[in-house]
Design a protein that fits this description.
It is a single chain. The protein has one domain (about 5-255): Ribonuclease Z/Hydroxyacylglutathione hydrolase-like (Metallo-beta-lactamase, Chain A, 4-Layer Sandwich), CATH 3.60.15. The strands form three sheets. Strands 1-2-3-4-5-6 form a six-stranded mixed beta sheet, with helices on one face. It is globular and about 55 Å long. It has about 260 residues and is of the alpha/beta class. The protein has helices at about 35-45, 60, 65-70, 150-160, 175-185, 190-205, 215-220, 230-235, 240-255, and strands spanning about 5-10, 15-20, 25-30, 50-55, 75-80, 90-95, 100, 105-110, 120-125, 130, 135, 140, 165-170, 210. Helix 5 (about 175-185) runs antiparallel to helix 6. It binds zinc ion and fe (iii) ion (FE). Fe (iii) ion (FE) binds next to helix 2.
């Protein structure tokens, strides 16, 4: 039976996620932007935390942890490379590590770019990946620490996961990402259809996260620097993918 996922809106536009195995009763939390909504959700569901997975060191992904650990005795897992600037870790992990979380394999992927040391958590059996501020719905995280080449490599590895993988990303930035995507890839019919759905969802206050890897590959401009239409639009027909990616990221920073 696949793991259950619950999306919890936090702060102004963050998402935390609960992962739950209904057979064993185990529960994991991915990121801790603030304690209130997460503790309320756990209480309402009657679940207690066994594990907290931290994607990266930014305050809007870790600040709720201390208050959560006062109520739930959970082990905290994060990147070994970031142990010096994450809350105290019980398990420090690196790219390629495979752990058992809620009874399923969970593979750690280094997805540096937004920060150096950012990790994603991939659950191949259920088919979901927690990407926080690396791959986002119709977007990707800003490059605060890493280079375009690092982010491009991270996104390429994520895009190689199966198309039916659920992409659980860290922010509700999709409406602004959608407006930007249309400026880069205006003739993409799949993008136009997706944007209409996003605008309708946001009008009704519904989350646009998680999304599907197949729809990201078809519509997310940051995964499509090899697309002839995008290249022609940018006048970069013969540039390497990484340079096209860097130009799209530069334009988003100024958008
Ligand atoms: Zn961040
Ligand atoms: Fe963030």
């Amino acid at each position: 039976m696949p793991l259950e996922t619950v999306t919890i809106p936090c702060l102004a536009d963050n998402y935390a996620f609960l992962v739950h195995n209904s057979e064993t009763g185990e529960t994991a939390l991915v990121d801790a932007p603030e304690s209130g909504p997460i503790l309320t959700a756990l209480n309402d569901l009657g679940w207690s935390l066994d594990t907290v997975l931290l994607t990266h060191h930014h305050w809007d992904h870790i600040d709720g942890l201390t208050a959560i650990l006062e109520v739930h005795k959970a082990r905290v897992i994060g990147a070994a490379a970031d142990a010096h600037r994450l809350p105290p870790l019980d398990v420090a992990v690196s790219d390629g590590d495979v752990l058992t979380i809620c009874g399923e394999d969970m593979a750690v992927m280094d997805v540096s770019g937004h920060t150096v040391g950012h990790v994603a958590f991939h659950f191949p059996q259920t088919g979901m990946v927690f990407t926080a501020d690396s791959l986002m719905a119709l977007g990707c995280g800003r490059l605060f620490e890493g280079t375009p080449a690092q982010m491009w490599q991270s996104l390429s590895r994520l895009a190689a996961l199966p198309g039916d993988t659920l992409v659980c990303s860290g922010h509700e930035y999709t409406e602004s990402n959608a407006r930007f995507a249309l400026t880069i890839d205006p003739d993409n019919a799949a993008l136009q259809t997706r944007v209409a759905g996003i605008m309708a969802a946001r009008k009704e206050g519904r989350p646009t996260v998680p999304s599907l890897m197949s729809e990201e590959k078809a519509t997310n401009p940051f995964l499509r620097p090899d697309d002839p239409g995008i290249r022609a639009h940018l006048g970069m027909e013969n540039a390497p993918d990484v340079e096209v990616f860097a130009e799209i990221r530069r334009r988003k920073d100024a958008f």
